[in-house]
């Protein structure tokens, strides 16, 4: 049998950047103005890079299918392995509501009804229609295979490049606008204003740009000379992402008048650029449609992906038989339907919180908190496995000998994780003071409930939950 072709260094850089290349997060970056440079560097240095490097060692040392839950299970036991897989599933409830909300905003511009983009009832309705629509389509067709990579090219890469190019041209033509988020620059604008703690909450939304950074580690075993090339690829990818996002964020900061940015509306800067540069507004409709296609393709990929991972966890005996049901096509129907129902309930936040901007940011931060807890478990596992399984073959290893470098990277990542959760609990400045208490209660409750449910389920697990032929299937796969 021919050996699988190894990834080149540049190939891995391209794949890694593809995971995080998105225009959706640009407004969250732009609202912080010049401080976005500081926030992006913090997100990259104490969050993205440490997690990516630890994940690379864990992925090459423990390459079994399952990723983070396998690493945590090997280090901390089955209970925390299950909690990890559970959190990676339930974070999608919040993340997909946030992604789906952009569908309504974009659709308003596609049909030339921009006022709908700030109508919370319209956004709520479109979330329900779009998510249930892609769910039902995925039950009938393989939408990821049908959409293919062209969805990402049309809906992510082309719009992102166009946004950066138009933003740079706009800045060259008009200079820095005094009424924008960049206006009246002072050196102190480059660092957060600690007197305005509410602005720190945006750091959580910016860190969300790198959520899922561990995913690229699955390719660490398939690259030429992983010991040298993987860290080079990760560092190069993060540097490029930081540069492109900063350029995009600053140019949008410069175009939108201070106090008027719409976090869920990526079409806003395109409209400003086109009006100023004399580009016909039909171009904005086309760009909105392209991004809309990309969002729907992303939703399709997430409908089945996490569910397929969770049903394996269920068949191992961690969840009742009810969760182990599949359709004739092997689709984990119970998980797919549960996530659609819960996402519908979470999306009701757009009705409870009338301001679309606030609801969008709140849900983004909830997703980031849940991801941060998973990353804390990964960081602890990386250290634990160095001592529990020191002789495991690690094609990529942090440090040629000893555990010093691993301890350093793990501590840096834990600092980043604690920082992320800390700023996430600070009420964002776009909220009203009367909403501050409710915001903190919501974030703490959502996090505790999501973790608590997993722990209760695990405590109640029974031997008869295990699928009868699961062990046999496992042995067949192993052989």
Automatic annotation (TrEMBL):
It holds the Pfam family AA_permease_2. It comes from the Bacteria. GO terms for molecular function: transmembrane transporter activity. The chain crosses the membrane at residues 35-53, 86-109, 121-139, 151-172, 200-220, 232-257, 277-304, 331-353, 359-383, 404-427, 439-458. The keyword Transport applies. Its main location: membrane. Keywords: Cell membrane, Membrane, Transmembrane, Transmembrane helix, Transport. It is a multi-pass membrane protein. One of its GO terms (cellular component) is plasma membrane. It is found in: Cell membrane. InterPro entries: AA/rel_permease1, APC_superfamily. PANTHER family: AMINO ACID TRANSPORTER-RELATED, GLUTAMATE_GAMMA-AMINOBUTYRATE ANTIPORTER-RELATED. This is Amino acid permease.
